[in-house]
Structure formats: C-alpha cells, structure tokens
Amino acid sequence: MKNTFGTAVTLTLFGESHGAGVGAVLDGMAPGISVDEDFIRHQLSLRRPQGAISTPRRETDDFRIVSGVYKGKTTGTPIAILIPNENTQSGDYPEGMVRPGHADYTAQCKYHGFQDPRGGGHFSGRVTAALVAAGAVAIAALRSNEIYIGTHIRDLAGLEDRPFDDLTVDLETLDDLTFPVLDERMAERMREEILAAAEEGDSVGGTLETAVTGMPSGVGEPWFDSVESVLSHALFGVPAVKGVEFGEGFGFSRLRGSEANDALRVENGKVRHLTNRNGGVNGGITNGMPLLFRTVIRPTPTIHRPQASINLSTMENVTQLSGGRHDPAIVHRARPVVDSVTALVLCDLLAMRFGTDYIAQI
Amino acid sequence: MKNTFGTAVTLTLFGESHGAGVGAVLDGMAPGISVDEDFIRHQLSLRRPQGAISTPRRETDDFRIVSGVYKGKTTGTPIAILIPNENTQSGDYPEGMVRPGHADYTAQCKYHGFQDPRGGGHFSGRVTAALVAAGAVAIAALRSNEIYIGTHIRDLAGLEDRPFDDLTVDLETLDDLTFPVLDERMAERMREEILAAAEEGDSVGGTLETAVTGMPSGVGEPWFDSVESVLSHALFGVPAVKGVEFGEGFGFSRLRGSEANDALRVENGKVRHLTNRNGGVNGGITNGMPLLFRTVIRPTPTIHRPQASINLSTMENVTQLSGGRHDPAIVHRARPVVDSVTALVLCDLLAMRFGTDYIAQI
Amino acid sequence: MKNTFGTAVTLTLFGESHGAGVGAVLDGMAPGISVDEDFIRHQLSLRRPQGAISTPRRETDDFRIVSGVYKGKTTGTPIAILIPNENTQSGDYPEGMVRPGHADYTAQCKYHGFQDPRGGGHFSGRVTAALVAAGAVAIAALRSNEIYIGTHIRDLAGLEDRPFDDLTVDLETLDDLTFPVLDERMAERMREEILAAAEEGDSVGGTLETAVTGMPSGVGEPWFDSVESVLSHALFGVPAVKGVEFGEGFGFSRLRGSEANDALRVENGKVRHLTNRNGGVNGGITNGMPLLFRTVIRPTPTIHRPQASINLSTMENVTQLSGGRHDPAIVHRARPVVDSVTALVLCDLLAMRFGTDYIAQI
Amino acid sequence: MKNTFGTAVTLTLFGESHGAGVGAVLDGMAPGISVDEDFIRHQLSLRRPQGAISTPRRETDDFRIVSGVYKGKTTGTPIAILIPNENTQSGDYPEGMVRPGHADYTAQCKYHGFQDPRGGGHFSGRVTAALVAAGAVAIAALRSNEIYIGTHIRDLAGLEDRPFDDLTVDLETLDDLTFPVLDERMAERMREEILAAAEEGDSVGGTLETAVTGMPSGVGEPWFDSVESVLSHALFGVPAVKGVEFGEGFGFSRLRGSEANDALRVENGKVRHLTNRNGGVNGGITNGMPLLFRTVIRPTPTIHRPQASINLSTMENVTQLSGGRHDPAIVHRARPVVDSVTALVLCDLLAMRFGTDYIAQI
C-alpha cells in the first residue's frame, strides 16, 4: 500500500519537503474521541528542531484539520490533516545531485527523474510531521484506555541511558522531556556528543527504546500479522530506521532457553509473567506484559563533509559537499515519530481484535 | 491477513503440529516456472531435524502438490502444497499445560481454549515445512533470473562465523552446507555448543545473516512498503524471530554519518556504491547492491529443565517439565525458512514493480 | 488478492477441474463455532448435479477438513478443506480448443499456454465446491446469531417465481428445497424449460434473489467498503455472475425519489423502515432491514451445438462442438455458492465491526 | 479499506459537505504523466450542477494540487488534491433529522451521533468532486495509452437513449456533451422529464452505460479479483449506485447459451470476438473487446415533498420536509464520477498486470 498502512485503522501520508505541504489521512479511528489541538502541537514540538543540536531550519508546523473532526471529537470518518510548508530553500538542491545515504539515487531508479528532488521530496523526514500530528490523535485515544507509550534514547554514539525501570514512573518522566533520556547526566553527555559531531560537520546515530503499558492480552495474530510483524512493518517505514528488535532482541542469540523463557505465575486468580524477555509478545500475540522494543536510527545522512558521489544529470563523479541545513542527530526527533507509529498500529490491532468502537469505549 | 502475506504474490499457511497435516497456498507466481520436486525435497531436508543436534522426531515431509502445477510448470493459478503429518505423539501435551516461551498462554487469551494445544497446534514450527516447500518454488524462480539468496549462521551462543566476503563464492558454498557456517572450524564449535546445551537439557539461540545478489535497483516503495518493511513483516511472522536489522543495523547507533553513508561512483557508465553499509536499500528502495540483513532466532523454548509455570485448566502454579522431543537449537533449521520468506517477498516486490510475468521472463 | 477475499475473515481457493482436487482455506473465523460435517455435506449436495436437469458427471464431493477444527469446533486458526477430484474425463478437452463463453481464450492471454486447460482448469465451477464447503461453516455461524440467508430463483428463461413475502416462512421453505423456487408450479415449469433447452443442446440463464434477515444495523462502511461494494466484489468472483443489484436495483431508474425512499417510524422506542426498496443498506451501511439483492447467472457456456471458434495451437478457425458433459442450467447449482459467498462476506463485515469473537458469542 | 480502494494504484477520499473541504490522495500513479489542470477543471465542470435541472448550490470547485506533481508531471509519489468548500448553508440541517433515503440513520447506527450531520457530512455526494479531480489524472493517463472511456445515460425515468453503436464515434461525441445522451431529441425529453419531476418537488433515477476501448487482453484475475469484481466494488462505493451489470447483464437471464456466447474468429493472425455479449470479460479477465457495463443511479433522495420520518434526538415520528437545495436528478452528474472510478480501477489493474511504469510508457 506504499503510503498507507493499517487495516481497520489506516494512515495515508502525502507531501514533499519543498512542495505546498505535507499531510496525512487517518481513517477508521472510532467516533467520539476528543481531539486536542494543543496536544497535537505538543507532539509536533517534540519533532521540531531543537536549538543547537538541530538544523537551523525553522518550522512552525501550523496544521489544519480538514475533515473528520466535528465539535472537537472524531466523527469516525477520515481525519485529514494538512501542514503547509514554509521557509523552504530550494536553491540548496542542484539538479542531478546525489547525496550519499539519501534516497536520491534510488528515487531516480524508481521514478526516472520525475521525482521532486528538492530536499529529498517525498522521501524527506518532513513528511513525518504529518505522521506525528495524526499519531497524536491515536496516542490520546489509547491514553483514554489507559494504554501508555513512552520512548527514550537507549543509546547514542555509544553512550547508554539507563534501562527502563518502573515503567509507570519512567513513562511519566519521559512525557516531560524534550530530549528523552532518563539519566540526566547522560542526557547532557549525549547533547555534547551531538554538538561535537556537528562541529566536525558530521552526525550521529542512536537507538530508541519504546515501552507500552496497558495493552490487553490476546491481541495480534499468529504468523504474518504478529504484533512484531505489524509494528516492524510500520517502524521500518520511518526514514533512517534500519533495525527493530523485541524484548531481548539480538541479545537472544547469546541466551540459553532457560534464560529466554518468561516464567508464569497465577496470583490472585490472574496470570502474570515473572520476567519480560519476550517484550510482551509470544507467538505474535500480546501476553499482557508491557510491549518492549528498540528501533535503531542511522546517523543523519546529510553531513557537511566532502563525500564521493555522482551527478545523475551528467553521469560524472563528483565530490559532494552539502551546503544545506542539517541535523547532527535526529534520534531525539524520531522519538515522537516512533511513538506515533506505535500508537497507530496499536489502535489498528485493537480495532481488528475488539471492533471499531472499542477504543472509544462506546 | 493473519496467515496470508504478500500482494501480487501471496502465501497462505494452514495446519497444526498434530493434526492431519500442514500446507500452503502460493498464489500469483508467474506461469511457466519449472517446479522441481527434488529441489523442494532438498529445501525441506535443510529444515528437518539433523542428527544429534536436533529433536529425534522423524519427519519425512512427503509433500503433495495439489494444484497450480501442470506438466512440471507453474500454471499461474494457486499452487497448493499439502504435507501430511505422521509420527505425532499427542500424549506429550497434557491439557491446560502452559510451556513458558511458547504461545500456549497467548493462544488461550485469543482463542479461549478452542485452539488445538497438541504440540503448539497452529503455532508449531512444523507449519514452516509448508512455507519452505512453497519457498522452494520462489527460490528457483529467482535463480532463473540470476537472483541468489544465501544465509549463514552469523553467530550462535556467542560464537561468530566470519562475515560474508565474496558473495558469489560464499553463496555457492552455503548451497552445499546443511549446517550453514562459512568457517568450518567455527561450525564444529557451534555444533559442540549445541550438544553441550542439549546435555544440560537447555537450548541456544543465534543470528542468521542473509545476502541476496542480483536484485535490480528501483524495487520497493517509500514509506510503508519499503523493502525493509515488507521483509521484516514476513520475517517476524516466523516463530522465534525477535529482531531484524539491515546493513549495519543496530551498529548504526555507534557510527557517524560519514561512516554510515555509502559513497557512489560512476564506472563504465554504471553506478555502483563503494560500500554496502545500508544493506542494499536507501529510502526503502533497492540500490542495486546486495540485500544484507540479519534475523535473530531466540533459543528454542522447549527445554528439559523444570520451569515455573501455570496450568490453565486448574489455574494453579506448577513446575513444568517438558517430556516431549525438543531441539537444542533451531537456528540452522530456520535457515531455509528465512530463505523461503525472503524469496517469496522478493517475488512479490518484483511482480509489483515489473508486472506479473516478469519473473517468468515472458 | 486474486484467489483470496475478505479482511478479518478471508477465504482462499485453489484447485482445478481435472487436477488432484479443489480446496479452500478459511481464515479468521472465530474460535468455538460448531462444525457439522453433515451440514457441509448437505450444502454440497445442493451444488451437485441434480438428475436430468444437470450434467451426468457424478461428483461425490468427499471433503476432508485438514486443519482448523478440533473436537468438532473451530480453533480460530485457518480451516483448510480439501475435496479430491474423481471421475474426471480429460480426454474431452483437446489442446488449443477455445470454447466460446468460457475463459479458455482469456486464460491463454494471461497465462501464455501454461494454464491447465482440462475442463477449464482453475476457472472451472468445480472450484465452487470448496467455496460451498467453507461457506457452510459461515452459514452455521450466522445462524447461531439468528442471521439467516435464503436464495430463490427469481426468474429463469423468462419464467418468474413469486417475490419474497414473509421472509421467516420463505427462508424456512427454501431450506427444504433442492430446486429453490417458492411457487411450486413455477418450479415445475422452470424444470421443463431446462429440459427443453437440454434437448436442443442448449442452456438457460436466470436470476437468483437473496434475502438475509437478522443483520444488525450499523455494519459496513461509507464509500469503498460499502456493504454493496464488498458483497458485489465477492459475488462477481463467482463464475457466470454478470450482474448484481440491491433492493429495487435497476428498477430504480424508473422510480421517482418519493417512491425510492424508505420512510421511517419509531415504534416502541425502536426504529423501523416502512418499506425496503434500498435492500437494507443506506450509504453503504446496514439499516436493520433485511438485505435484499439479486445476482444474474448467465447461461452455461458449454452447449452441444456447433459454434464458431478458434484453435489457439494452430491459430485456425474451427467449428467447435463440445462433446463433454454439460449442465443445461447452473442457476439452481449456483444457489449454495451465492449463499456461501454471502455468509463469508457477512462474517467478515461483522468481525470488522464488532471484533473477532463476535460471531462466536464469546 | 473504507475510504481507500485499489492495490497498486490507490485512491483515498476525505472530507465533508459542510466542513473545510473535500480531498483525495491518489497513490501509485506512474511517474511522468502530464497533469493538465484545465482537464481536471473540465471534468469537475461535468459534475457541477447544471442550470435548471440541478441544485442552485453554486460550487466553484477550485482545487489545489498539494503534492505529487512537479513541473507539470506526476512524480510517482502521492498526489493530494484539496477542494475547499464554500457557499455552505448549514442552517438547512437541524439536529436529529433523518432524511429518508439518505445515510442519516445508518450513520447514527455506526457513529453514535458523532458524525458530521451537516449536508450528509462525509456521505455527501460533494466528496465525489475530489474523486473526479483525481480521476481526471487517471483518464488522461489512459488516453495516452489509447484507452478511452465514455458514459451515456442509457435510460432515465423510463426514457431510453439509443445503444452504443460505433464506439470510436460515440465516445468522441460524448466528450463534447455535458448532458451525455447520444440521441439529441431524447436528451431534450430527458431534460423535460427532470424539470417535470422538479416542479413536483420530486426526483428521477437512471442508468449509466459505460464503454472502454483499447484495453489489452489478459488483464484481471480469476475468482475474487475479476475485472467485474474490482470494478463493481469501486462503483458501488459511489453514493446512489444500486446495481452494476456487465455485457448483457440481467438480460442474460432470458438468453440461451447459444445466444450468450461470443463466437471467436482468427483474422489476419489476430483473435477477435464476433459479438460482445459478455462486455469484454470472460472468466474475470479482459478478452480484448471493449468493456461494457451499466450502473444504475437511484433517484436523488432529497425531495421537496413531505415524508414520514423520525427525529433521532427526540426519537419521535415527524413529517420531514426538506427545505435545502436539491437536485431533481444526479444521473448526469454521476457520469464523470463513474468515468473516474473506471479510470482509477483500470490504472490499478494495468499496473498490477504490467508493472508500475506501464501506463507511463517508460
């Protein structure tokens, strides 16, 4: 479905970095869910460039809800959100230029030169602004069902945040952080590392770790619509994501079965797991424990250093030196994107399992 | 779509571990592709238990192509493959038993006790036999287009195989190996490690690394049908997969942008990348370099050690001690499954890009 | 999805007329639904050739439930049903032959000669046996929710049955009829007409009219997943269906708005419509009235009369004279197929609306 | 998919009659297709109210292409088109009002009162303006491949236009007609009939007949993605459509097989059919003959006559008397909608069959 994902709840993205704007159509959200424009603005602010550690490009992200919201609540029909572009500098992007690490070359292979090349066009991270705006509606809907999502920077340039501990406390803490690192001193060191990379005209990568509390058990499907399948599908749709792992993830390769299994107990007539090494999912289906997964964000491809590249118009080798604005790190800016994708997928899975009204508690 | 994946080329799985059999329906394969039953048998043999390092359960995997093949070639209409079960020991699975690490509990949450509990029922790895049989058709179709897939055990219980080097040579080497490790001595050490775990009634996990050569550039989609999205969706459908990463994957979190970008050159009028850190995909679309990704396989959940668990019939705490047959490792057995999933996804992506006849070279 | 339809509840068909067999995979049915093999047999008997008014081909339709049913109830995982073929006479179908009205020529255009030509191969109505077997499970599930489906021959070769009257009575009556015509005398005249056509080596067409009682209101979607959209999609998948209409259908073209609108009344706190000209659907969504629609079945294309045709092997004009067995009418045999398609679509729509457990009353 | 249809080429609709606007996202159109805004305007003008035979509501349909078009050509990425609303009179729609024949009641059943009730909200025919704008892009793309679509009013209120004759001439003729009736005198009589109904505060229905020339053979799928399935699915998504038939359609019920089959001949090495009773499709796949189908448009539900209805807020019986603007006929206004739906479906089918570049002749 290319720019659409989901089954019962679907999101469709459109727009380009330097075109008229970007937008999203969110279809299938239950009716009667409160839409708080301030919360959407707050989520968008988390995605926006932040001071010295971000691109100087200023984006106001003034959005407009075109449809699907009536008297402050979702109608149940498609919610279209439009975010016009402003402050674009198309002069930065000369014809035929291929920026290593970007989709410039692959876009050419697929679209034969008809793609909008300005600022990466439709491949630009700019499009995630629309995703975040739509995701805010889903996040709020989940919260009203006491399902909470939180993401921190698990590591960045080799610096590691502390692991999640008490999720109730940690997710609340994250809510107040624009730079989502649980260990304050580590947050400072990460920021310094970003600035150091920026000074060298370079960029850094990192890993986001996401937890979700409150998901009911029995959601998801065996085989090809496993919770991991559906979440990873959507997460890998986010530019710069190159890996997704659940629970112990790649760490499972060093564990024994006796360490990898989560023991179960009955307590007060309820089932609980003593550990959560499987990230809340067994056989593709939620087991009632928090969802836990990590998403790696590759370093921003745009850097201010000379790179060996090519010009597609002249088919000549060139030394590419980006003059445009750039982010020395997008890990923290990817956080609300990952939260949004997660929320949208969970709304979809819940609607598939419990029906289209479920999330609205109707 | 639960037990179906794909768009132009789709696979539907059915069956249970101890029922009448397992099977697959492969729909949308181009007409005129030769179907070699010996090659299907070969692929199935790679998935079957291997001597001391596997379960003693003997499976002959006699399959029957019910439809979709006429005069030795695909017709273009659905190919149904049925693999009857034999040698099942249902007595091994008492009622209400929850085996930690398995889907027993989540199946209960979803199916309310109506699921077939014998040997994991529909959640059993047994179902992958049908997937491998169908995948063999796709692998052969890709080979006739000079697209080759190869997977080795990148690491197992902390032991590391050498990385891929010359892919042409390495993929050929892997073709002849039932235990797919490029470094022979390391293969021996891994086997020993598996036996050591088996003696302790335990199991080990590992990471599979897959390379694909010959994929044309320009395949895949931006955003939600990225090559990574579609591949990971299908790979996470395989039981025991808990992480998928492309190119440098989670290693990107320690790289700088200047290290993470693949430089490009024009040589003899053709574009090539000097490195392949992005695993053959930029912006979700193939760039003409080999696809490169890793899939982690968690340790087999069935172990011969006492585990804290519950009985769902009595809702009591129990010490679960598996008396059934089990695999101390399934990493090597997951190899043909991963190859099959990869082949099916690539056939689908190629059909979506170039039309339904493409793979048949009609 | 070619041979699969549905979203939450899906059906996948496979098989050929003269191959090993035909089959279906029904995925997404709720767990815990009783599966009565006698009822499946009964439904299959309605589809089977009936005495003088049908082909002399004898089909026993011995089916085998391969998966998805455990202890007589659905497990919630895929239900695979296999119906082996027997009594096939492949000699009837010489190479290159194109039978007018059949898919022989279009199959060649699409499959380039690799299709199984014997008896129409995968295009054969034989495949509907698998559809009917799967549909029986859905019909039974709906009945346990007091949703009833009934279909009669509205007209055949110009002879008209009386319209539906008291649906409760009429649907019960239809249950007992193998030749589903409400007016007994008209049933006799229709049979005579079929025999008359048969004697001339010809065949007749007809219209099936279907009613569904008990569907809750509020099911279906505006725009592209309207109840009419989804039902017609599946119905047009049945071979020989060339038209579908709801309520007054094509009769609306002669009505005025004042005649076409269904007036509403509140009675005892409940809403009801005074008429049902719109066939139970407004704006794509059920309104609580019975669903009412008609499906036209074109005359069987196989006839025993010389027809101008071509040979695709020699690319010559020929006079085609079918020597094979044939049905002078399939209208009555299409009845259980239409009922099955309807039931499967309704199970899907209900699961999408109310969740995957709904139909099982869990 | 609710408000999205298509697989390789998809359309997503959003918007409400009296909200900020309506819009469409067209995804998957090949890159490099010229987008002529004048042609979009022309198509929109065919959908707009026409003089005395239409509602006096004035719509300028000023559209804005937000994304997906660069330098006058499609980029290959999503084309978003926004049409702001103006001249809305919300006062016409009091709370709780149910207009017979509309979706007011079913929307309540599905959306529990949260739907936008003004002017039918998302159920309004106003949304088809966005569909027509997107469809214009598809129509133009098909024309560059010499695939032409034309629709006339086959009958209206019992008055019949002449049938299609020479399609090349007839489709050209239709291109110039805003009231698409081939027989000029009949066009005049139909207009009179509409005015007569309007004077009585009533409305009329009619049947649209569509022909498509130039479609290659071998497109479409057996069973559930038959050309008839996919087209009817999309056509029934259009409000007011209550029946779809192909070729002889419901007329097949009175034909014999010998009359219903289309004979074939080889002429100059090419295959052609001597008649086109099956509307260009056999076994779900195009046979190279023109596509031919009819779509019935029920009379506009809004009329200026008292109707028995209910008020959903008070749950009381009322006599509903619409004071709003209304169309005594929408048959002619539905014409560009049907053409657009047809074009979008055909672009999708062609892309699925021949790949994503096919329509762009790249």
What does this structure look like?
- Four copies of one chain form a homotetramer.
- The first copy, chain A, has 362 residues and is an alpha+beta fold.
- The first copy, chain A, has one domain (4-360): Chorismate synthase AroC (Chorismate synthase, AroC fold, 4-Layer Sandwich).
- In chain A, 27% of the residues lie in helices and 22% in strands.
- The first copy, chain A, contains eight helices and 18 strands.
- Chain A has helices spanning 37-47, 104-111, 128-143, 167-175, 184-199, 227-235, 257-260, 331-354; strands spanning 4-5, 10-15, 21-27, 64-65, 69-70, 73-74, 79-84, 148-156, 159-160, 206-213, 241-246, 264-267, 270-273, 281-282, 285-286, 291-297, 307-311, 316-320.
- In chain A, the strands form six sheets. A five-stranded antiparallel β-sheet of chain A has the order 1-2-3-7-4, covered by helices on one side.
- In chain A, a hairpin with a 4-residue loop joins β17 (307-311) and β18 (316-320).
- In chain A, α1 (37-47) packs across α3 and α1 (37-47) packs across α8 (331-354).
- Chain A is globular.
- The first copy, chain A, starts with a strand and ends in an 8-residue tail after the last helix.
- The mean pLDDT of chain A is 95.
- At the A-B interface, β1, α2, α6, β11 and α7 of A face β1, α2, α6, β11 and α7 of B.
- β11 (241-246) of chain A pairs antiparallel with β11 of chain B.
